[in-house]
Amino acid sequence: MRVLLDTSYFMPLIKVQVKDIPASILQNLLSNPRVEIHYCDITLFELAAKAMHLIVSGEPIDIHDVRIGIDAIENETRFERDQWTKHPYILELTASFRKIHTDFIDCLILATAVCYAEAFATLDNEIYQKILKEPSIIHQILDINAQFQFWFGDLSKTPIMLEES
To answer: In this structure, are residues 28 and 5 in contact, taking their beta carbons and an 8 Å threshold?
Structure first.
């Protein structure tokens, strides 16, 4: 299964622990031969931006750990980078998501997942709940990727298939 990971799942690589995500989550995914890990190229920007916010806020994060984590993502051959600029439907989907969700980067990453992956792993249940209230957006997603699923939290539960109502 091709799974595009939201930025939060990469935070342990820059030595930032995220509530509800075990530090070993990437190792667990990498050891599963049925999972192909994808990430949106904008994730690297968001990871750096989140790290800088934490550093400025006084969190004990080492900038060198941030660089090492980003390098690890870029150089790990089992991580597939998906470029948001290369798929013709990503910006169209992003615009639809942006109408119901205020975070542009979240919308862009989700649109990239719809276009490149079978599942989107995220902690953001809010955007999912908003999508469920918008049949036109569900239809748009399923027209692009009829098998699309959301996979939440620590990924211990089965992904949820998106279906038209």
So the answer is: no
